[in-house]
C-alpha cells in the first residue's frame, strides 16, 4: 500500500516531442504528489507538485495530470529539449503515518536533438 | 553557502573501516533525512530527524548509525559495511517533518570493497 509504481523505466523522445511518465498509487491517504528531476551527479530537485483537489497543474512546459478515482498521476513535458534529459521520480505522501515521501523507481529520459 | 551540502562526494571503504558522511543545511529547516539510492530501486528512506530528535528508523541495519547534533547538521556513521551497501546516500531537509518541500544534497557515492 505504501508503494508508488512508475513507468516507463526509460524513455527516448525527439526534440520538440511530448514526454509522458506515469505513476500509480494505492494508499488513499496520500494527499501530495511531487515530481523530482535528477541530473547525473546531483540530488533530486523538486520540479512540480499537485494536491488531489485539482486535476491538473501546469508550470511552463511541465504539467501534472491527476486522476483521483484511478489513483494515477502523470508528468507531461511539452516541447521536450535535450536539457530535459534526466531521471524523473514521482513521489507521494500524506498527513500522519504516511507523511514521509515515498518515491517511484524513476524514469530515465533521453531527449534526442 | 546555501542549500544542502554533503561531504565527501565520493568514498571508497573496506568492510572493516569506520567512516562518516556529513550533511549540512543552510536553509533554516528543522527536519533532516537520510535516503539511500540504488540503481533501479526507489529512493529508500533510512532515517528522519525532526528538531534534532530521531522520529523514524526505517529498519536500517545497526552498521548505519545516524547523529544529529543540531538542526543544521546530520551525520551517518558507517562501520563494518557490506558490498551491497554501495550506493548513493542522499541527505535532504524540509521546514519540518510535515512539510513536503524537500531539498536534497548532491549525495555521497559510497563504494564498499
Give the topology, please.
The complex is a heterodimer of chains A (113) and B (113).
Chain A: E1 4-7, E2 10-14, E3 19-25, E4 33-38, E5 45-50, E6 56-59, E7 62-67, E8 72-77, E9 86-92, E10 102-103, E11 107-112
Parallel strand pairs in A: 2-11
Antiparallel strand pairs in A: 1-3, 3-8, 4-5, 4-9, 6-7, 7-8, 9-10, 9-11
Chain B: E1 4-7, E2 10-13, E3 18-25, E4 31-37, E5 44-50, E6 53-57, E7 64-70, E8 73-79, E9 87-94, E10 103-104, E11 108-112
Parallel strand pairs in B: 2-11
Antiparallel strand pairs in B: 1-3, 3-8, 4-5, 4-9, 5-6, 7-8, 9-10, 9-11
Give an account of the 3D structure.
The complex is a heterodimer of chains A (113) and B (113). Chain A has 113 residues and is an all-beta fold. In chain A, 0% of the residues lie in helices and 52% in strands. In chain A, the strands form 2 sheets. In chain A, strands 2, 4, 5, 9, 10 and 11 form a 6-stranded mixed β-sheet that branches. Chain B is an all-beta fold. Chain B contains no helices and 11 strands. In chain B, strands 2, 4, 5, 6, 9, 10 and 11 form a 7-stranded mixed β-sheet that branches. Helix content of chain B is 0%, strand content 57%. The model of chain B has no long low-confidence stretch (mean pLDDT 91). Chain B has strands at residues 4-7, 10-13, 18-25, 31-37, 44-50, 53-57, 64-70, 73-79, 87-94, 103-104, 108-112. The interface between A and B is medium-sized, with 24 and 21 residues.
